[in-house]
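hi!! sorry for the late reply, been swamped w classes. u asked for the two structures so here they r. pasted raw, havent cleaned anything up. first the sequence of the first protein and right below it the tokens
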Amino acid sequence: MLDDIYLRPSQIGYFQLAAHRFGATRSQRELILDGTGVDAMEVDDPQTEISFFQLTRLIDNMNRIYGEGWFLGAPELWTVASLRPLGVAAITAPNLGAAVDVVVQHIPTGMTQQRLSLQQQSGATVVRHTVATPTTEGEHKFFAYSVLLGLSTIFEGILGAEMSALSFEFIWSEPPYAAELEKALGGSVRWGAAVNAVIVPQRLLAMRSPLADSALHWVALDCLVEARRRPMSEGVKERIERLLSRLDSPRARFDDTARELGLSQRTLTRRLARLGVTFRELVDAELKFRTRRWLDDGTLSHAEIAERLGFSEMTSFNRACRRWFPTPTRPGGQTGSALSGAIPPALNRSFRPQTNAA
């Protein structure tokens, strides 16, 4: 069955930041939020909760539209305030060693599916980062960079000028934005390492935090403990969306999906009806998401996309594109051609219809 861990609540802050900082227009916001199940109205509601699956969809969209290093233009993502109780509990701890213990123990609560572990080396403590569930490389990079940037912000508040003594390691090869990332981290960076980690000299762990506050520290810890007790989301819609996203073909059978979720077909139909959505609409949304992603990537032809999505005829795929990406009406009531107008201008550069498709 689909792992319910994908449904644990995640912070809405990423959605709000992405929508406001990068979504200057309505069309930009729609591209950013596409396939997440969150609309422009909901993203401004502080009570909105999102699942880990929805968060990864947002990251996929941002990476596709703006490139992997987009987060470096949004430093609000890794401030102490953005980490909420986790950041407050760490920065108000008595010393750096206590702050490290806080983030290692409580990061799964503050940042969904993120894990930290400690390894002792000669004269240093290594704080290693992993993601608890399978992710794409782009998603994995975002989480690793974001978590270690968050740690660097906490550590800088305690260490000050001693930040330069820290070193960071990443498993990937050096990206084009490496210099900018190293500057944001505040320490030296090594690429092609065995693990993603920050290495802290042992002598620094006893350094007292200038923001140490026993009362505030324990209040923040209580908030983290209480948040951990919150039940998992039981949204069947999100479970289906995650299942469809993991399949080679999103054209899943309804009866197979119900069986995978451990529900009868009647129960699944009833639950979806209460949510105002149908199984067919969820499959259609996944088809649209993959089409947009592949068109923007530009590595697959029109015919290849249609084949991967299970369309038996090109005309059916063309009709679906016109429905998913309506053609804007031009002055005088005219519209563009059926194919060139089937997708937004931001994606049109990679849309190459195949005139000789069978």
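now the second protein. again sequence first, tokens right under
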Amino acid sequence: MVWRAAAVRNVGTVHDRANRRWTRLLAGRTRGWADAEELSHAIDGTIVGAAAMAAAGLHGTLPVVVVTVAVTVAVYWAADQYALLLGAAAHGTRGTHKVREVLRHGRPMVEAAYTPLVLVVVVALLTGDVGTSVLVGLVAATLLLGGLGHAAGRRAGASGAAAIGWGAGSAALGAVLVLLKLLLH
């Protein structure tokens, strides 16, 4: 793997250790988003969750936002996992081991989508303002997308500046969702 080889080659420099720590923090690596497939699922989940949050935030009630995001992400997750299992079966891979592996690799989709949602609930309960809490959740999703993009860049072997560009590009997706929410509300 390119990103691991680059990390091993640069071990020992203060700058590289800081980059690895920053990448792990932003990418959720401490929660186990260890490979490209899991990182991809986390990005998908963040985008789907944020889009559902932006749409549901137009209705203005916390239960509508929570249910919409939870159900939307669950449906996307189930469809994705089912497609992966069918694909594995079509290639001759069967058994409970493969099912567990597919479900484990898909878990970041749910984790990444529900992280901003938990923030929405907390802010709504503290402030009583669902609109503001949805905006805070969308900003959190945007930051998460930026971090995941940065991690993807680093894992692809990009330089620090290029990885920041990857992060900015990913965060731009979240920024579009925030702008859409603000324009539609």
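hope this helps!! also noticed smth abt the second:
Residues 34-184 form one domain.
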